[in-house]
Amino acid sequence: MNIADLRKSYEKAELSEGASEANPLKQFERWLNEAIQSEVPEPNAMTLATVASNMRPSTRVVLIKGYDDRGIVWYTNYDSRKGKELAGNPFASLQFHWVELERVVRIEGRVEKISDEESDVYFHSRPLDSRIGAWASPQSQVIDGRTVLVTNAAKYAAQFMLNPPRPPHWGGYRLVPDEWQFWQGRKSRLHDRLRYRLNEAEWLRERLAP
Asked: Mean pLDDT, the chain, as a whole number?
């Protein structure tokens, strides 16, 4: 089959101004809960886009670990490529794609590190293997082979036993949104697309052409 011939008609739902929340966080929470209840694969997976100092963008998939009025939280290695890019340019975007529901959520804003206390609480809630893995993997660095990871994991497991501390290079980020977009697939490519943008501490909701 020619890949250009692959098409899908989106007909599962609609997104109207009258039926959507005035606050984008509440709209996000509604859609996230529906994704979880619908048992879509990994409803907590989101694509994170950052831009390096040379203006080259990069993306990767991370997992949302919390959200509230302050923003969207995830955890990672601060020394990774994304960590270094965020240190140089703290603006980023996130995207959720719930294929089965024909929905996309895009979020843009400034990124900040969360507090050490918050990072500590989450780190110690993780399974032991994941805590050891945070020490074992020099994320984004070139390594000679998988043996490096296995050897590091054995070394830190022996060193820390059952109580590895949070590595100083590992912790949480929070994206503080100033723009949200909610996309609902519709028939004939006439999709619903609502944007919320921050305007003097108020959220302005407007419809965009798809």
From this structure: 97
- Cβ neighbourhood burial of 164 (10 Å; 0-12, 13-18, 19+): buried
Q: Which domain holds residue 151?
A: 128-165
Name the CA dihedral angle for 196, 179, 71, 31, rounded to a multiple of 10 degrees. 50
Q: What is the CATH number of the domain that holds 201?
A: 2.30.110.10
By the 10 Å C-beta count (0-12 exposed, 13-18 middle, 19+ buried), 39 is classed as exposed
Helical axes 146-160 vs 128-136, angle rounded to 10°: 120
* Same domain, yes or no: 106 and 143: no
pLDDT value at position 1?
Answer: 83
- What percent of the chain shows pLDDT beyond 90? 95
Q: Which residues are catalytic?
A: 189
Burial per residue of 134-147, b for 16 or more beta-carbon CB atoms within 10 angstroms, e otherwise: bbbbebeeeeeeee
- Report the pLDDT value the prediction gives residue 115, as an integer from 0 to 100: 98
**Residue 42 region by backbone torsions, left for phi larger than 0, else alpha for psi between -120 and 50, else beta:** left
Question: Is residue 87 domain-shared with residue 105, that is, in the same domain?
Answer: yes
Any residues with CB less than 8 A from the CB of 29 and at least 6 apart, and which? 67
Domain match, 115 and 134 both? no
Q: What per-residue confidence (pLDDT) applies to 84? A: 97
| Residue 72 and residue 109 share a domain | yes
